[in-house]
Every structure is written in C-alpha cells, then in structure tokens.
Here is the input.
Amino acid sequence: EVQLVESGGGLVQPGGSLRLSCVTSGFTFSNYSMSWVRQAPGKGLEWVSHIRNSGSKVYYADSVKGRFTVSRDNAKNTLYLQMNNLKPEDTALYYCARPYYNGMDYWGKGTLVTVSS
Here is the structure.
C-alpha cells in the first residue's frame, strides 16, 4: 500500500522558516518524481514544486521561487521542502503527491502551515 505522510507544519511568523518532510512507503521511491502541492483556505490546489527521481532537476512555482527548496533522500524514502522567508500568503495545507501523467495518483493527508504574527 502506497503511503505518503507529511510532517513539519506549524505556526510561524512572517519571515520565518519551516522544513516539511514527507515519508513514503509502499513503492520504490527512487523511481518516481515527486511534487509538493498546497491549498490555501478557501482556495483551490496550487502546485508548488517538483523534483525528478534522482533529484537532478527541480522546478518551482513563481510564487515560491527563491524562497523554497525541494530535496529528497532516496535512501530514507523521504521528500523535503525547506521554506524560508515565509509570507502570510504561504498559509495553506501542504501535500506531497506522486505525479502520474498529467496529475497525481497518490497524495498524503497534508500538513498545515500558518504564517501569522
């Protein structure tokens, strides 16, 4: 059974940092690209970042470019998202997801990030 379990969310002040983790199981993690997707309160899903299976290529939404860094540890089957200089508009439920064709076939349950003073 494929499982994706996010952690690391919380309440942080503007300008602060958080590191999200996504521990995976049930599939060969090193064979798959992975993504982070977020959903702000009352809004739709927003793709945040993508990393190739080897970690050699990474991609970011313009809204987070220069502030967020995606990485992975294939030995630990874990995906990460380092978030720096957080802004109130980064407040959202953050999901890790496994890309499949033009969508995602597996999602975690999400971890909540709240940026507020």
In short: The chain is about 0% helix and 55% strand. The chain has a mean pLDDT of 97. Residues 89 and 115 are 8 Å apart (CA to CA).
